[in-house]
Amino acid sequence: PRLRHIQPRLVRALTEDQVLALLRSPDPTTWIGARDRMALVLLIETGIRVGELCRLTTGSLLDDGTIFIQGKGGRDRYVPASDELRREWAVWVVRRAELRPGKRAALLIGRHGRGILPRTVRWIVDRHSRAALGRALGLHAIVRQQRPWSGFYPHLLRATAATEWHRAGMPVSAIAETLGHSQLATTARYVA
Questions:
Q1: What pLDDT is attached to residue 148?
Q2: 21-64, pLDDT tens digit by residue?
Q3: Whole-model pTM?
Q4: CA distance 58 to 89
Q5: CA distance 53 to 44
Q6: CA separation (Å) from 83 to 45, 90, 128, 138, 142?
Q7: Which residue in 4, 22, 85, 100 could disulfide with 81, CB within 3.0 to 4.6 Å?
Q8: How far, CA to CA in Å, does 165 sit from each of 50, 71, 161, 173, 176?
Q9: Which helix (H) or strand (E) holds 156?
């Protein structure tokens, strides 16, 4: 039998208002809220993958204003960090010390001082996205019927970063390099 060709689905992205609402969702006065905000800011501003976020250490932000990313498939790279992101990073590192994680260098940690897992990142994005955007997008009635990560997922924030860079005039080849894509066709799906 002949298989039909299914077109790859374009990746959707959040609007600027939705991004701002999402970043306002975590309560930065609490330790968990500050950690969640840092995770969201990193995902939105750098477009890194969940696994890459979990591998960040307190020393990943370099003096030259870039973040060293241990990439997927051994494709390590450097991603520029905005002044705002560097300020958030500095505030978070001070806040992180409150938990006294000992010699553990993971940037984002849980209550026991260990680095967070990818499922925790998915939970952070899902929880705050539903709180900030669920009702605004009319999803509050159907979210109970969906699988846990089918509504809001970290990759949506990666696509949002790529879309914003493309709107700002960044060439697709530079976006591909920043995202760690080996093929331009993959990046083209993000910015179309």
A1: 45
A2: 999 999 999 999 999 999 999 999 999 999 999 999 999 999 99
A3: 0.85
A4: 9
A5: 11
A6: 11, 11, 24, 34, 39
A7: 85
A8: 19, 20, 6, 11, 11
A9: helix 154-167
Query: Which residue is it, tokens 């609490």?
Result: 30
Q: Is the dihedral of CA 95, 48, 146, 25 positive or negative?
A: positive
Contact 128, 22 (CB under 8 A): yes
Q: Angle at which helices 154-167 and 31-46 pack, to 10 degrees?
A: 50
Please report the pLDDT score of residue 35 as a whole number.
96
Which stretches in the chain have pLDDT values below 70? 1, 5-11, 135-152, 192
DSSP string computed for 44-84: HHH---HHHHHT-BTT-B-TTSEEEE--GGG--EEEE--HH
Q: Which residues are catalytic?
A: 49, 72, 155, 158, 181, 190
Instruction: Please choose, from the candidates 188, 158, 169, 168, the residue with its C-alpha nearest in 3D space to the C-alpha of residue 45.
Output: 158
* DSSP conformational letter for 7: P
Dihedral over Cα of 123, 128, 130, 133: its sign: negative
Torsion of CA 33, 34, 40, 42, to 10 degrees: -170
Work out the burial of residue 34: count CB atoms within 10 Å of its CB; fewer than 13 is exposed, 13-18 middle, 19 or more buried: buried
